[in-house]
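Retro notes (design track)

What went well: tokenization of the new backbones is finally stable.
What didn't: we kept losing track of which sequence belonged to which structure.
Fix going forward: every design gets posted as structure first, then sequence, in one message. First example under the new rule, 146 residues:
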């Protein structure tokens, strides 16, 4: 009699665990570090590619097509601003539900007018575009540099 109940309890527990893992909250708990790490890694790769392009042509690439760079699956890279003295770029996860979970990451190089507020040059950082972010001891309700 105890064996059938134990089996039912085990199946119910498995269903609950699967439901949590597939929900946005569950994904944020189990996968957030990996997604944000991937976003930052892709920005670091972009910085290296841009610096190589700059070494060859004395300017930064105005589009991603000019660089020999293939971002990881589901990662979208964008160059916000490119000048002769620097650039500013962002990365985000292409999964719609991950925008609020993983946020958006950005990096800037060169001209300090391109800097994201509070970010250091060459260092990718992430923020949440649709909700406040606790950073440097205060809540910020908008994205950096805006």
């Amino acid at each position: 009699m105890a064996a059938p109940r134990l089996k039912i309890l085990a199946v119910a527990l498995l269903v609950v665990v699967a439901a949590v893992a597939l929900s946005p909250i569950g994904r944020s708990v189990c996968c957030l570090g990996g997604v944000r790490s991937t976003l930052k890694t892709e920005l670091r790769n972009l910085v290296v590619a841009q610096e190589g392009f700059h070494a060859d042509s004395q300017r930064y690439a105005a589009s991603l097509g000019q660089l020999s760079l293939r971002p990881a699956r589901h990662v979208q890279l964008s160059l916000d601003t490119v000048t002769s003295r620097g650039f500013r770029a962002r990365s985000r996860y292409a999964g719609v539900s991950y925008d609020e979970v993983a946020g958006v990451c950005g990096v800037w190089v060169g001209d300090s007018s391109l800097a994201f507020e509070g970010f250091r040059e060459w260092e990718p950082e992430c923020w949440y575009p649709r909700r406040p972010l606790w950073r440097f001891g205060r809540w910020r309700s908008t994205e950096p540099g805006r």
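Added context from the reviewer: The CA atoms of residues 107 and 129 lie 15 Å apart.
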